[in-house]
Design a protein that fits this description.
Keywords: Signal. The chain is an alpha+beta fold and 130 residues long. It has a single domain, classed as CD59. It has 2 helices and 6 strands; from the N terminus they run H-E-E-E-E-E-E-H. Strands 2-1-4-3-6-5 form a 6-stranded antiparallel sheet. Strand 5 and strand 6 form a beta hairpin. The longest helix is centred in the last third of the chain and has 16 residues. It starts with a helix and ends with a helix.
Length: 130
Protein backbone atom coordinates (compact mmCIF):
# COMPACT_ATOMS: atom_id res chain seq x y z
CA UNK A 1 0.00 0.00 0.00
CA UNK A 2 2.81 2.40 0.92
CA UNK A 3 4.47 1.82 -2.45
CA UNK A 4 1.23 2.70 -4.23
CA UNK A 5 0.99 6.02 -2.36
CA UNK A 6 4.61 6.87 -3.22
CA UNK A 7 3.97 5.96 -6.86
CA UNK A 8 0.84 8.15 -7.04
CA UNK A 9 2.71 11.10 -5.49
CA UNK A 10 5.58 10.61 -7.98
CA UNK A 11 3.18 10.55 -10.95
CA UNK A 12 1.47 13.72 -9.68
CA UNK A 13 4.75 15.59 -9.32
CA UNK A 14 6.09 14.47 -12.68
CA UNK A 15 2.88 15.65 -14.39
CA UNK A 16 3.17 19.17 -12.95
CA UNK A 17 4.60 21.82 -15.23
CA UNK A 18 7.92 23.36 -14.13
CA UNK A 19 8.27 27.16 -14.38
CA UNK A 20 10.76 29.87 -13.53
CA UNK A 21 9.93 32.07 -10.52
CA UNK A 22 11.45 35.49 -9.94
CA UNK A 23 10.41 39.09 -9.40
CA UNK A 24 12.24 42.24 -10.55
CA UNK A 25 11.30 45.80 -9.70
CA UNK A 26 12.07 47.03 -13.20
CA UNK A 27 10.99 46.46 -16.79
CA UNK A 28 14.10 44.36 -17.43
CA UNK A 29 12.92 41.04 -18.80
CA UNK A 30 16.10 39.07 -18.15
CA UNK A 31 16.53 36.74 -15.22
CA UNK A 32 19.03 37.27 -12.43
CA UNK A 33 20.93 34.61 -10.50
CA UNK A 34 18.01 34.64 -8.01
CA UNK A 35 15.63 32.79 -10.34
CA UNK A 36 14.30 29.46 -9.11
CA UNK A 37 12.57 26.49 -10.72
CA UNK A 38 9.18 25.64 -9.21
CA UNK A 39 6.70 22.82 -9.71
CA UNK A 40 3.17 24.05 -10.50
CA UNK A 41 0.81 21.23 -9.54
CA UNK A 42 -2.63 21.44 -11.10
CA UNK A 43 -1.45 24.12 -13.52
CA UNK A 44 -0.86 23.77 -17.26
CA UNK A 45 0.89 27.09 -17.91
CA UNK A 46 3.89 29.23 -17.02
CA UNK A 47 3.60 33.02 -17.22
CA UNK A 48 5.75 36.14 -17.48
CA UNK A 49 4.12 39.42 -16.39
CA UNK A 50 5.61 42.77 -17.47
CA UNK A 51 4.30 45.95 -15.80
CA UNK A 52 5.06 49.28 -17.50
CA UNK A 53 4.02 52.84 -16.79
CA UNK A 54 3.51 54.20 -13.30
CA UNK A 55 4.31 50.77 -11.81
CA UNK A 56 7.24 48.85 -13.28
CA UNK A 57 8.26 45.26 -12.81
CA UNK A 58 8.68 41.80 -14.27
CA UNK A 59 7.39 38.63 -12.65
CA UNK A 60 7.93 35.03 -13.75
CA UNK A 61 5.70 32.39 -12.14
CA UNK A 62 3.18 29.60 -12.54
CA UNK A 63 0.28 30.61 -14.77
CA UNK A 64 -2.53 29.76 -12.33
CA UNK A 65 -4.22 32.06 -9.87
CA UNK A 66 -3.52 29.72 -6.96
CA UNK A 67 0.21 30.34 -7.48
CA UNK A 68 0.24 34.06 -8.31
CA UNK A 69 -1.91 37.11 -7.56
CA UNK A 70 -2.01 38.73 -11.00
CA UNK A 71 -4.01 36.37 -13.17
CA UNK A 72 -4.63 32.98 -14.70
CA UNK A 73 -3.54 31.71 -18.10
CA UNK A 74 -6.30 30.00 -20.04
CA UNK A 75 -4.38 29.60 -23.32
CA UNK A 76 -0.92 30.18 -24.76
CA UNK A 77 -0.12 33.64 -26.07
CA UNK A 78 0.04 37.31 -25.12
CA UNK A 79 -2.61 39.44 -23.42
CA UNK A 80 -2.54 43.03 -22.20
CA UNK A 81 -4.58 45.26 -19.91
CA UNK A 82 -4.20 48.88 -18.78
CA UNK A 83 -5.56 50.81 -15.82
CA UNK A 84 -5.47 54.45 -14.72
CA UNK A 85 -4.66 55.44 -11.14
CA UNK A 86 -7.58 57.73 -10.16
CA UNK A 87 -5.35 59.75 -7.81
CA UNK A 88 -2.49 60.48 -10.22
CA UNK A 89 -3.99 59.84 -13.66
CA UNK A 90 -0.96 57.70 -14.52
CA UNK A 91 -1.45 54.57 -16.62
CA UNK A 92 -0.05 51.14 -15.79
CA UNK A 93 -0.05 48.41 -18.43
CA UNK A 94 0.15 44.73 -17.57
CA UNK A 95 1.31 42.40 -20.34
CA UNK A 96 1.31 38.69 -19.70
CA UNK A 97 2.79 35.93 -21.79
CA UNK A 98 1.45 32.40 -21.21
CA UNK A 99 3.13 29.21 -22.40
CA UNK A 100 2.59 25.49 -21.85
CA UNK A 101 6.04 23.84 -21.71
CA UNK A 102 8.50 23.31 -18.88
CA UNK A 103 10.45 26.50 -18.05
CA UNK A 104 9.03 28.23 -21.15
CA UNK A 105 8.60 31.57 -19.33
CA UNK A 106 12.26 32.43 -19.77
CA UNK A 107 13.58 35.45 -21.65
CA UNK A 108 13.09 35.23 -25.39
CA UNK A 109 11.66 31.72 -25.32
CA UNK A 110 9.30 32.39 -28.21
CA UNK A 111 11.64 34.47 -30.37
CA UNK A 112 12.72 32.78 -33.62
CA UNK A 113 16.39 32.34 -34.40
CA UNK A 114 16.58 34.32 -37.64
CA UNK A 115 19.72 32.61 -38.87
CA UNK A 116 18.01 29.22 -38.64
CA UNK A 117 14.90 30.53 -40.40
CA UNK A 118 17.03 31.96 -43.22
CA UNK A 119 18.97 28.70 -43.48
CA UNK A 120 15.72 26.70 -43.74
CA UNK A 121 14.40 28.98 -46.51
CA UNK A 122 17.68 28.77 -48.43
CA UNK A 123 17.76 24.98 -48.17
CA UNK A 124 14.24 24.76 -49.65
CA UNK A 125 15.24 26.92 -52.62
CA UNK A 126 18.53 25.07 -53.09
CA UNK A 127 16.67 21.76 -53.06
CA UNK A 128 14.37 22.91 -55.88
CA UNK A 129 17.20 24.06 -58.12
CA UNK A 130 19.67 21.19 -57.63
Amino acid sequence: MRQLVVFIIFIGLSAAIECWREQRDSEKTTHTKDKTKVQCPGCNYCVKFVLTGSIRGTIWDCGCEEQNDLGTCTREGHESDSSVDPNTGLVTTLDWYCCAKNKCNSTGAARPKWALVLLAILSVFMGKFL
